[in-house]
User: Fold Piwi domain, ribonuclease H-like superfamily from Helianthus annuus.
Amino acid sequence: MNQMQTLVAPTLITHWAIVNFCAPCDIRNLCRDLLRCSKAKGIDLREPYTVIQENQQSSRNPAPVRVELMFEEIQQKLPGPPRFLLCILPERKNSDIYGPWKRKCLVDHGIVTQCMAPTCIDDQYLTNLLLKINAKMGGLNTLLSVECLQSIPFVSSIPTMIFGMVLSHSGSDVPSTAAIVSSRKWPLICRYRASARAQSARVETIDGLFEPVSPERDEGMIRELLEDFYQSTSKACRFIRDDYWDPKFTVIVTQKAQRTNFLQPKPDANVPPGTIIDTEICHPKNNDFYLCAQNGPLVSIIQTRVCIYLIHLCLKNSLLLRGLYGVHITTCFLIKSVSLLMTCKSWFILCHMFAPIWYAHQAAALMSQFVNSDMTSNSSGGGGGGGFTQIPKLHENVCDSMFFC
Assistant:
């Protein structure tokens, strides 16, 4: 996205506030620059209702206590719950405030929040921040031309639900986190909802996909996402109510090919974005290929190896590859590909992950913070069945948002 381009569907953000956990930051300049950048992108961001600074005495408390005290101040200074909270953290990484703050906002109060650290704040940083905020608040940043024309092979022609699944391991003594995201509001493929569960450490299968509690009721993650897909695309999904429903599945596994690079012989350069390699170096019998989705500096792109393990759709390989490429490049934030390759480490991850898998990784990382903060504060959680704290359910105000951006 060009710095001068406006967003496809910018959102209106009113009744919001800024909270600062003792980070050295010029709040006045930050507000001014944030409002200026939001106006350039078309986002109607109003002035913050208030700015709440943590006092030095409170900063000596444990992180959960600091978050509780901050919310007491929020409730005192704001007339009703805010729609959005911008949280300024003192550390860019591994802040002990992050987990308890996200849990308090997303689980207890249902408030959309965005965290930031005051390092190297320029227009590009603020624009990336606004892209994430806009997506979390229900806005739409970009649309592929094929998405507008509904010409993505096999995705645009029939009601299609795209899942991204990730199983994240934190350590042998820490519960693993399984996260699934699913597309919503078909025929769009840029909006997703997430569901996550904790499970026994180092188990290499996702336990919570299906959890039948009776012959008529299932409380697994798949059912939760199917119901959301139906509600957001009711006209397209009338078939879900039929007694006989036999959806077609395609199971795809992706992996990083960190030691694989593809170059053009003359001149020395990366192969162009969209290049697919499915001969010579691929398995002679398995249905696998390499996908080069983005551009970037020479030999800096991590390639994606794609393996198709199950396919029920009668499609030509060329159509399937075009559809996968469309899904690959629909990530909702980050404004420049080449410049961000040099400045933003997360873009290196985006270069080898399909958008739904990237979102699932983000959701797993965030939701695991809830469990970790519970373990740190020795709080008792819901029954996980394996002696570990289960991930709490999100508040109904944010459960169908892209909170994981």
Summary: The chain has two domains: 12-136, 144-256+302-405. The first helix runs from residue 27 to 41.
